[in-house]
Write a structure and sequence with these properties.
The chain has a single domain, classed as SPOUT methyltransferase, trefoil knot domain (Alpha/beta knot). Strand 3, helix 3 and strand 4 form a beta-alpha-beta unit. Helix 1 runs parallel beside helix 5 and helix 3 packs across helix 5. It has a 5-stranded parallel β-sheet. The longest helix is centred in the last third of the chain and has 19 residues. The protein is of the alpha/beta class and 159 residues long.
Length: 159
C-alpha cells in the first residue's frame, strides 16, 4: 500500500519533525508512506472572505497538481466524518482489499481546503470539532495510520 500525506506548508518545528520521523519509521513495516508538501500562499493576517477564497484556491491548485487520477483521496476537514481508530483501520483494510493501493490524505493550510479539493476527495475525515495546527495534524494523522495497521494485524498497541 502507498500512502501519501499531502500537506500545505513547510514543517519547521524540530519536535514535530522528530515525532513524524518516528512514525514514518514504524510505518515502513506496513506501507510506503510519503509526505508531500506544497507551499502555502503568503497572505496578511486579516483577510476578507473573497481574499480567503483566493488563498484557498491557489493552495488548492497546488494540491490538485500533486494528486494522480488513480489515487483514493481522503480530505481532512472539521466538517468531515468522525471515525474511531477501529473504523479508520476498517476503512484502510477495505480500501486495500478492494484494490485501492494508493491513498492520499490531504491536510489544508490555515484557512482549510478549497471547494475543488473537497470535491476531488472520495471521503472527508474529521479528527475533532476543534481546530489543530496543520503541522501538528501530520503527526496526529501518522499516529492514527500506524494504530490502524496495528489494529488490522491484531498487533498490540497501547490504548
Amino acid at each position: 500500500m502507498n500512502i501519501s500525506i499531502l500537506s500545505v506548508g513547510k514543517l519547521k518545528e524540530k519536535y514535530l519533525k522528530q515525532g513524524i520521523g518516528e512514525y514514518l519509521k514504524r510505518l515502513s513495516a506496513y506501507a510506503k508512506v510519503d509526505i508531500i508538501e506544497v507551499p502555502d500562499e503568503k497572505a496578511p493576517e486579516v483577510l476578507s472572505e473573497a481574499e480567503m477564497e483566493i488563498v484557498k484556491q491557489k493552495e488548492g491548485e497546488r494540491i490538485l497538481a500533486k494528486i494522480s487520477p488513480d489515487t483514493y483521496v481522503i480530505t481532512l476537514a472539521i466538517e468531515g466524518k468522525m471515525k474511531t481508530s477501529e473504523e479508520l483501520a476498517d476503512m484502510i483494510d477495505h480500501l486495500a482489499t478492494y484494490g485501492k493501493s494508493k491513498i492520499t490524505f490531504v491536510i489544508g493550510g490555515s484557512l482549510g481546503l478549497s471547494r475543488e479539493v473537497m470535491q476531488r476527495g472520495n471521503e472527508s475525515l474529521s479528527f475533532s470539532k476543534m481546530t489543530f495546527p496543520h503541522q501538528l495534524m501530520r503527526l496526529i494523522l501518522l499516529e492514527q495510520i500506524y494504530r490502524a495497521f496495528r489494529i488490522i494485524r491484531n498487533e498490540p498497541y497501547h490504548k
